[in-house]
Design brief:
With 160 residues, this protein is mainly alpha-helical. Helix content is 80%, strand content 0%. The chain has six helices and no strands. Helix 1 packs antiparallel against helix 6 and helix 2 packs across helix 3. The longest helix has 29 residues. The radius of gyration is 17 Å and the shape is globular.
């Protein structure tokens, strides 16, 4: 991995982790009557089980670490796709290309995570509620956009 590629990945992973973490924390605290600690304990609970909800700060910190790991993972997937697909680069280079791709990639991430990854880890199906739909739409500006914009920044437009 060259320096430019590594910096794109680091920028995308950190930016996405921070932006999505802040958005989720604000939703949890001000709209859902919970706390950021409880939110990230819930993330940790996907690996540790429900007892993580009683684990205090250590499990919340594990949840934060997991959250950033997921942000870096999806950023790496997108970087891989952009480097190998002239079609994606073509769309990105088009008018509003970053927004177009983010509008697909953000919800795609939520669909995979909420309908496949998390249910596999917790051994129960996803509950589709208003919060699920808020997350689906929120993944456009708070996940898709930081990943896509960070990875795309500085790429050369494809030659026509």
């Amino acid at each position: 991995m060259n320096r430019d590629t590594a910096s794109r990945l680091i920028r995308a992973g950190l930016l996405t982790g921070v932006i999505d973490g802040l958005c989720s924390s604000i939703l949890a605290t001000f709209f859902y009557g919970s706390t950021a600690t409880r939110l990230f304990q819930g993330v940790a609970a996907t690996l540790l089980g429900r007892e993580a909800l009683d684990g205090g700060t250590p499990t919340a910190l594990l949840g934060v670490l997991m959250h950033f790991g997921v942000a870096f993972g999806w950023s790496a997937v997108f970087l891989f796709l952009v480097e190998r697909s002239s079609g994606i680069r073509g769309v990105l280079a088009s008018r509003y290309g970053v927004a177009k791709v983010a509008a697909l990639y953000g919800p795609f991430i939520w669909l995979v995570m909420s309908l496949a990854v998390i249910p596999l880890l917790v051994h129960r199906p996803t509950t589709i509620s208003i919060r699920w739909w808020i997350q689906l739409i929120g993944h456009i500006p708070f996940v898709g956009l930081p990943i896509v914009a960070s990875i795309w920044r500085g790429f050369r437009a494809p030659k026509a």
